[in-house]
TrEMBL record:
Subunit structure and binding partners: Monomer.
Residue numbers covered by motif 'HIGH' region: 9-19
Entry keywords, A to Z: Aminoacyl-tRNA synthetase, ATP-binding, Cytoplasm, Ligase, Nucleotide-binding, Protein biosynthesis
Domain Glutamyl/glutaminyl-tRNA synthetase class Ib catalytic: 3-274
GO molecular function, one term: ligase activity
EC number: 6.1.1.17
UniProt: ATP binding residues: K243
Catalysed reactions listed for this entry: tRNA(Glu) + L-glutamate + ATP = L-glutamyl-tRNA(Glu) + AMP + diphosphate
Subcellular location(s) of the protein: Cytoplasm
Family: Belongs to the class-I aminoacyl-tRNA synthetase family. Glutamate--tRNA ligase type 1 subfamily.
Descriptive protein name: Glutamate--tRNA ligase
Known role: Catalyzes the attachment of glutamate to tRNA(Glu) in a two-step reaction: glutamate is first activated by ATP to form Glu-AMP and then transferred to the acceptor end of tRNA(Glu).
Amino acid sequence: MSVKVRFAPSPTGKLHVGNVRTALVNWMFAKGQGGSFVLRIDDTDLARSTAEFEQGIEDDLAWLGLLWDERDNQSKRFDRYEDAAARLKASGRLYPCYETAEELDRRRKVQLSRGLPPIYDRAALELTDEQKAAYEAEGRRPHWRFKLDGKRVAWEDLARGHAEVDTASMSDPVLIREDGLFLYTLPSVVDDIDMAITHIIRGEDHVTNTGAQIEIFEALGAPIPGFAHMPLLVGADGAALSKRLGSLSISEMRDLGYEPIAITSHLGRIGTSDPLEVGASIQALGESFAFSKMGRSPARYDTADLDRLNAQALHAMSYAVAQPRLADLDADLGEGFWEAVRPNLQKFADVIEMAAIVRGPITPVIEDAAFAEAALAVLPETIDASLWPTWTNAVKEATGAKGKGLFMPLRLILTGQSHGPDMATIAPMIDRDRIVKRLKGEAA
């Protein structure tokens, strides 16, 4: 059986880390087994869905390298949902209910006060045709519930192992609202059937939904796909993921300077037995993925780990890969420059500041004018690859400074910073006139 999975985001907002982790695990599982990945836009809520958000979803997935093999919109498939609803109505599995939200809320409170579970009591099944007509006459429109079998639904979950849901403890789910809008459950099942989805991979907060959906698959006479319910993300401290981090969109992360491979490596490997390191490529992440590596505990989302992986990705980036981006930032000073500065990059845009070291302008930091004057006096006439050892030895002889007392003042004067790229490599890239000006305390 060829693996086929789907990611079905709603275009009512931007993709955030939780969404992308679901998309990523689906993509890795499929690609690791030579299968296919379907992007299915859940835009049945026409009032809230926008073309802008839909385009943003596509842009974010493409930027991350999560390219899809098939693409569809649920808004184009209402006829299929109507057909399925008609079949369920004809078989008595989808039935009309006329209670208002207020009436249902009062009923739940009464059940709770009596120590009963607050599940729907199926009172609508007892309505006569006359009662239904009376409700219609007063302007009520029904919502439609799926009649559960009330049994133990079991499956072998790829992420959780053996799983069971007792649908007798659940309310019959609403599949169609009073205004005729299809809720998520029925369109999702119909699409999974029509598109021959073999595995449904999502968060463990959908486990209960799966029990109901399996019964809908059965009621429609369709084969049951495989399921995997992943542990959810939590913060670095093990508490619920903060709203600030949990809602951080991929477009915002891109603007903050994170690399796609750092994001996918982080989200793809947290909560697994794989080392938290940058993958060689998105394809390599897929090839190494297995649900057997995924733990049962919540995955800890720590931005410190993401920052580390981002730096790791930059430190390993070749000049050939970096060159077009360097050119876009007007910071392409050649391969030697890239090799010198990349070990110090945390975000790619840091290269702009690094380029200023070579071509200016920077404001030198001079803590000892006499030291700077002495260093200027022994500055070699020719600036070449031997500059740093030759010059520092001469400055040492002239001032008696050594160790940090020798190298740090020179770094501060030439770069304006107390840290940065290897001076033996970067210093020869600065022309002599600029070095002279900086030694004199002039911005250059």
